[in-house]
Design goal:
2 helices, 120 residues, single chain, alpha+beta
């Protein structure tokens, strides 16, 4: 499948509608029936104001977080429509991506009808 990997950048203490923003984004992904979302904590980062954000032993509020979603074109459209409607200001990176699942659900090599070979 083809679509996008969208990565949102935020901090642990940032909230939206009274919920931590990263949690709100994960719940939004579920509400929009997206394939999934992953929250990745970071040790340190530099924000757009050139201020260092980091997780400290006793205080995690400033810890940088990434929320990553892999979505189809239609899912990306619905996601950004909702974010605009929420009037949420949030930095993101949107990268074209090919995605899928490897394993038991893959077509077998001897099943000629299900093999699709892409040529560049």
């Amino acid at each position: 499948m083809h679509g996008y990997q969208i990565t949102f950048f935020t901090q642990q203490a940032r909230s939206h509608h009274g919920k931590p923003l990263a949690d709100w984004l994960v719940r939004l992904a579920r509400e929009l029936d997206l394939s999934g979302a992953t929250v990745i904590p970071a040790c340190e980062g530099i924000g757009h104001h050139h201020r260092i954000h980091s997780a400290h032993f006793f205080e995690l509020a400033d810890q940088p977080l990434c929320v990553v979603m892999v979505v189809t074109n239609d899912e990306a459209r619905r996601l950004f429509e909702r974010l605009r409607a929420e009037r949420l200001q949030l930095f993101y990176v949107k990268t074209a991506a090919e995605f899928g699942v490897v394993g038991e659900d893959e077509p077998r090599a001897d099943d000629a009808d299900s093999v699709n070979i892409a040529r560049d």
